[in-house]
Design a protein that fits this description.
It contains eight helices and 38 strands. With 635 residues, it is of the alpha+beta class.
């Protein structure tokens, strides 16, 4: 006990903030204000590991918000739960001259449950405080102390946090016993200073005078560009469960043994139901599809943040009885059903989201994933299942989890694997439109479209819409057809692949514009590019395209018999490394045929390619509104 007390006193003395320091805005170096909505004047973090089940985390952070674009930085939000207890919490607010104008203690913070609208079981809560700001600049000083009863998840450090912030001074120190092993990985930070703190060992990382950068769209994830630090234990305790890992294999072994083993039992009635379901099915993949669709329709997704700190799934028998669960529970349940049919499946951790973020090959830590999916390792045909969706086709991951490194949790340990990537060739929107235009400008016709790959998601939400909502959505997508009238609509999903087939019958009383002997209209009313790309001068970041696609639109418009072509747009073809745009139009007999083809290729390109990328979408927007002019034939 004396050793811990001395350690506590040593760190507290080094942590005590210097309240005499002035936070006047005039003292900020001018170069740190450039492109900045805020400046982190001071960011001091201290982690004290007193034992595998006892960790203290202190934060002293001072941020000057320069203008109202940084209003989001004025709020202090602290999460807590049974493994993460708030020990102290306060906020001081200073004006532009550095004068203290407001103090907030813990009792001034609002306190609410952190239960989302899709969750039933969470023990997490939030304390938050946001001062009333009447003028900028303003400076917010936060002092926070949290005590954890675990060391599995050691706090990370992101001193800059986002591109619009500068950092004047930052430090992160970790204090532990010399025999307590850690691993760490950093970006944009010098190697730590390692020294003694009494009888303990002290690691300290520092950062000074980092300038803000302007926002540049189509850049790789900030975690790959801005300074950050990740720390992982070797031995740890979490919610009373101890463990040890040094790499992904040993981490996966701990998850399998401690979190998954013994949680797949099912009632005999359910076992019998599964066996009956697949008894006449010879193809294991077809049997897996039947089981997956059964689980989809039976269960619904609900966040359940209980069970060894939210990392352990509910038992399969509980999901079977309740018909709900989170991603962990639904994957575990589906895996248990498949096991009854003799089909192997593998519980897999992944970072889900629109950006493709990989598990790091050379650094194992628990914080790298936020979702669970299921792998079915069929011979020569590995199949992946998203178990939280009631609508996803069998074997379709979608933009949420495609094309990134994930971690399979196997009996003999963890194994990194990359999920399938939907490349631009697979992400297709293929449309055929056939119209008739009369001399008064009335347009009637049909549009048939297929959506595949990631573009399957273009219609994925339609199953939950009412007929009125569907019509409103379709009208918004065909906004360039004036006075759009939907006569009929049909949407069908392909039975064995992620593909929608849409058929639409429409009319428009004012599509063409008559003017004396002339009749004018757009040759492409079905796919007009709406993407606006922000201009960035002197771009620094590489140009990153996360998801590519292929759009092909074939539009056939039968023109009035007593009209001829007066003016037709010239063909356009333009190619770049990242994609291409093509628009052609020709008259065959009395039918105008326009073909639009646009390709965007996913990948990482030089910063210099971004200027062409702007021109690429400008080109599409200009030519997508190209017009044809007809003239009445002379009798």
């Amino acid at each position: 006990m004396r050793k811990i007390s001395l350690l506590f006193l040593f760190v507290w003395a080094s942590y005590m903030p210097s309240y005499a320091q002035s936070y006047a805005v005039d003292l900020i170096p001018q170069e740190l204000k450039s492109y900045a909505k805020g400046v982190v004047r001071l960011d001091e973090r201290t982690v004290i590991i007193q034992s595998p089940s006892d960790m203290i985390y202190r934060i002293h952070r001072v941020t000057t918000i320069l203008n109202n674009s940084g209003a989001d930085l004025t709020q202090t939000v602290v999460f807590y739960n049974k493994s993460r207890k708030i020990k102290s919490l306060s906020v001081n607010v200073y004006n532009a001259h550095g004068d203290l104008i407001h103090k907030a203690k813990e009792s001034d913070f609002s306190d609410r449950s952190y239960i989302s609208n899709y969750s039933l079981f969470e023990d997490a809560r939030i304390k938050s405080f946001q001062p009333v700001i009447s003028t900028y600049p303003i400076t917010i000083e936060e002092n926070i102390e949290i005590r954890f009863n675990q060391t599995l998840a050691i706090p990370e450090w992101h001193p800059q946090g986002e591109e619009g912030l500068s950092v004047e001074t930052g430090s992160f120190e970790l204090i532990k016993s010399p025999d307590y092993e850690i691993k760490y990985q950093s970006l944009g930070l010098a190697k730590p200073e390692i020294g003694e703190a009494g009888k303990s060992q002290r690691y300290q990382w520092t950062l000074k005078n980092v300038r803000a950068s302007k926002y540049e769209p189509y850049s790789i994830n900030e975690d790959l560009r801005l300074a950050n630090l990740k720390i992982s234990p070797v031995k740890f305790s979490y919610d009373g469960v101890t463990g040890e890992y040094v790499d992904w294999k040993t981490y996966g072994k701990w998850v399998y043994d401690k979190l998954l083993t013994g949680r797949s039992d099912l009632p005999e009635t359910t076992i019998a139901k599964v066996k009956a379901m697949v008894k006449d099915v010879k193809d294991p993949k077809e049997a897996a599809r039947l089981i997956y669709e059964y689980a989809q329709q039976k269960n619904r997704y609900v966040s359940v943040q209980i069970g060894i700190g939210g990392f352990q799934p509910m038992k399969a028998s509980e999901v079977d009885a309740l018909s709900y669960g989170d991603c962990k529970a639904l994957v575990n349940y589906t895996s248990a059903l498949l096991k009854v049919a003799g089909i192997e499946s593998i519980y897999t951790e992944i970072y889900a989201g629109s950006e493709k973020i990989d598990y790091k090959e050379d650094f194992a830590s628990i914080g790298q994933g936020n979702h669970i999916i299921l792998c079915l390792p069929f011979a020569n045909d590995t199949t992946w299942l998203e178990c939280t969706s009631k609508e996803a086709p069998f074997g379709f991951l979608g933009s949420f989890t495609q094309g990134r490194k994930a971690l399979m949790i196997k009996e003999d340990g963890g194994e990194l694997v990359k999920t399938p990537t939907y490349t631009w060739e697979k992400n297709t929107q293929l449309r055929n439109a056939t119209f008739m235009l009369d001399s008064s400008g009335i347009l009637k016709g049909r549009v048939k479209t297929s959506f595949s790959g990631i573009q399957y998601e273009n219609r994925e939400s339609f199953s939950g819409l009412s007929p009125v909502e569907k019509e409103q959505e379709i009208k918004s997508q065909y906004a360039h057809i004036p006075d759009f009238n939907m006569i009929s609509y049909r949407l069908d999903r392909a039975p064995s692949e992620p593909q929608w087939k849409e058929e639409l019958e429409i009319s428009s009383p004012h599509f063409g514009n008559p003017n004396g002997d002339y009749l004018m209209f757009d040759i492409n009313p079905v796919n007009v590019s709406q993407r606006s790309v922000k201009e960035v001068l002197n771009r620094k970041n590489e140009h990153y395209i996360n998801i590519g696609y292929l759009d092909v639109d074939t539009i056939r418009i039968t023109i009035p018999a007593n009209y001829r072509i007066e003016s037709l747009p010239e063909s356009v073809r333009k190619s770049y490394d990242f994609g291409s745009y093509e628009l052609t139009a020709q008259l065959q007999d009395d039918e105008l045929i326009a073909v639009r083809k646009m390709i965007l290729k996913e990948g990482l390109y030089p910063a210099s390619a971004y200027e062409d990328f702007i021109g690429f979408y400008d080109l599409a927007q200009r030519n997508d509104r190209a017009r044809c002019v007809l003239k009445k034939k002379q009798e």
